[in-house]
Amino acid sequence: MCGKLSKPSLKTHVIRSFWRSSTGTSAVEFALLSPIFILLLLGMVAYGIYFGASNSIQQIAADAARTAIAGLNQTERQALVASFVTNNASGYPFVDATKLTYQANDSTADGNQFVVLIQYDARNLPIWNLFPRLIMPTTTISRRSTIRIGGI
Predict the structure, then answer these.
(1) Is residue 80 part of a domain?
(2) Beta carbons within 8 Å of 41's beta carbon, 6+ residues apart
């Protein structure tokens, strides 16, 4: 008996053409990768805001220390720092001036230096709401700036 090749059935043909078709590939790839991409994007924005706030706190400390060198003694320098922080802290990005605390004193290690310490309660930044289960930086941003008293 001679072998006769049979045509593939319609069902087999539909299944093969389904697996070979690439019309929905982009939609499937987008559905799989878009949550990861969106999570990365939100993470970059949230950490960017945190790093921006941290940089602003460091800049406030540096600017307050520079302002303080105009004072003749520790009391005047502390008053200058208090005035600077009160009048200018709200102008820095990502900083709520009501959540700032500061200390301004002569250095205990070197009497020729003046130290400004700024602390910021960063609990209201959006980073804490995005990733509640991940390890995060501390909610208090603390930066200091030291400047020499009396010139070079």
Answers:
(1) yes
(2) none
Q: Where would I find the beta strands (DSSP E) of 87-130?
A: 100-106, 113-121
The per-residue pLDDT for 135 is 76
Q: 111 versus 82: which is more confidently predicted?
A: 82
The length of the chain is 152
**Cα–Cα–Cα angle for 52, 53, 59, rounded to 5 degrees:** 90
Answer yes or no: is 42 within a domain. no
C-beta of residue 31 within 8 angstroms of C-beta of residue 37: no
Amino acid at 80: L
> Is this prediction's pTM over 0.85?
no
Domain extent at residue 140: 54-152
Strands (E), the chain: 100-106, 113-121, 140-148
What is the C-alpha separation between 144 and 117, in angstroms, rounded? Answer: 4
pLDDT of residue 152: 55
